[in-house]
Amino acid sequence: xxxxxxxxxxxxxxxxxxxxxxxxxxxxxxxxxxxxxxxxxxxxxxxxxxxxxxxxxxxxxxxxxxxxxxxxxxxxxxxxxxxxxxxxxxxxxxxxxxxxxxxxxxxxxxxxxxxxxxxxxxxxxxxxxxxxxxxxxxxxxxxxxxxxxxxxxxxxxxxxxxxxxxxxxxxxxxxxxxxxxxxxxxxxxxxxxxxxxxxxxxxxxxxxxxxxxxxxxxxxxxxxxxxxxxxxxxxxxxxxxxxxxxxxxxxxxxxxxxxxxxxxxxxxxxxxxxxxxxxxxxxxxxxxxxxxxxxxxxxxxxxxxxxxxxxxxxxxxxxxxxxxxxxxxxxxxxxxxxxxxxxxxxxxxxxxxxxxxxxxxxxxxxxxxxxxxxxxxxxxxxxxxxxxxxxxxxxxxxxxxxxxxxxxxxxxxxxxxxxxxxxxxxxxxxxxxxxxxxxxxxxxxxxxxx
Length: 450
Prior knowledge:
Blueprint: H1 4-8, E1 13-19, H2 25-35, E2 44-47, H3 51-62, H4 64-73, H5 76-92, H6 95-107, E3 114-119, H7 122-139, E4 142-148, E5 165-168, H8 171-184, E6 191-193, H9 213-217, E7 226-231, H10 239-252, E8 256-263, H11 269-276, E9 281-286, H12 289-302, E10 307-310, E11 330-333, H13 339-350, H14 357-368, H15 375-385, E12 390-392, H16 397-409, H17 412-416, H18 437-449
Parallel strand pairs: 1-2, 1-3, 3-4, 4-5, 5-6, 7-8, 7-10, 8-9, 10-11, 11-12
């Protein structure tokens, strides 16, 4: 095919990123795709102006009652009712997006011949799909809509009639969405499986001088500082758990040094102030969402991070990054919130990137009893751990901190560092485990523009 970069750099192409502020996930994916564009391509960022989305996201994430209510709406017969209703609402409320797109077209120095909209949130995806034909007819330009699903989450709302491509992270999600579309008699959608788009900076190789840093940090006999990253979610979930976990881990060993990445906001100010009082904690923050994403990546560029305590949101896909790369820390997942986070964990289990639940339960029980690994257990667990890129933390900050220290002491973490580059595994050539999802995304998108 024609060089994909020349297609994306064409001056007659107008490129728009449509993302939502509801959590950092949609913005992280947009940022990864943005930085994966060839030099000379100049996109516009188009964030949703609907603050209701952000409010609902935070309300659902923090409060157990509203979370249970929203999870109920997402399944069974309730989902059968709410999904088409929400889709109908989105496609009837397109005025602001239509106005924004027209303004950008009018302000372009060159009148574009093609408009490419990349949507990383289903809300803007449905709205863009609803006005696509109208823009094509009125402005006499070709409009292409590409949607990136940001979790391995086959929720029917990600089925976007009118989209030219909907990229999904696995065949599982593709099959489920195709089945939904056929069952409901909706127009056919081009669903394509593509490796998850990860930051190119996090995917870069560690410098030669840094390659021994993670093994040294996670060696229980060394006195090296252990750098632990803790990104606070966009909804600021679990700050009480994080605060207690940090204090408990520090009491267990002063080797642990914590790097918290958080948004400056009224609902995080008390937590940030409290953490700033601790000498073993460093805070990295900004009031702007996009800067928070950049700060997080800069942390990984400036420090070798060995452990990251995080929600199993879109961050779960960092498990595709090798420990030999800058973003290849071991992921320690807190309690999942919402169906999409359970689905992300299921993705990791399917590809043996985290232990099966029975094995995880066994590890928790051994850590709770503070048992040393017996010879027969060592062989079995170490063999499996060579494939693991993350672990699921038990409930309770004290129990979780004990589990982390036990994994350090029993060399489970150091064994996990021997995980090969996912795409180099002799016994696993799964396309979805490739680390270059951004490149594949743009190649396939460029083909669609021809």
